Sequence to fold (239 residues):
Amino acid sequence: MKTKFHLILFLMIISFSLSGENMGLVIKYLGLNVVEVDMIDQDNELAISATSISLGKIAKKLNNYYRIKYKPEYIPVHYYKNVKQSDYQEDRDIYFFHDQNHAERISHIDSTRNRKYYIESGTRDFFSALFYLRFLPDLSSGSFRMDANQVQWLAEYKMIEIDSIRSIFGIKECMIVKITFKNEDGIESERSDMLTNNLVDEDVPLLFWISNDDRRIPLKAKFAMKPFPVIWKLISYED
Fold:
């Protein structure tokens, strides 16, 4: 009965995303707004754009775009990245073949970076993993697998607290979920963009504030980097 209830709850929650969502976030560092992020989830596709703003343009110019086509439960089948940073670029497609336990990476800048590599079935990229986590009926504890530049990671999550924070909706009750990462391949990660894979680190946990209601809106995220954390904060929301 409990399993059936969780399934019904998951289907109810996920139905909200089918009608489409548009979220705006700001990334803060040292108390300054440095990057604006737009996320659209519609028709089984995530589209994310990130642009440096204000002093962020001086410190590190950034203009990135990501598109993920996914199956139910946010299982990615095609992940496209176009990264334009002041000292780093990517333009690549990644195709996930879950039934064959492999992924294929195709670089449109440097063909020597093309790869075919092993993945566990159900492995997700950075963004689809966070959306999948967001809609899980039970956030008490669990794990999922992530692919970050062909390195396979085990992400373990645990709800550590229910709290209320100020948000664009006023005071909002939320679940605080802590995510830790473990490098399952034991190999050093390749350099990547600042927004996603470079944030996946065994020494850097992620705290995720998710509204404690049917919509499970991501209100805030905090990467506990040293010496100063990186904060993501929701600044607009439409559905």
Observations:
- The chain has one domain: 20-238.
- Residues 2-18 form the longest helix (17 residues).
- The CA atoms of residues 21 and 142 lie 26 Å apart.
- The chain is about 15% helix and 55% strand.
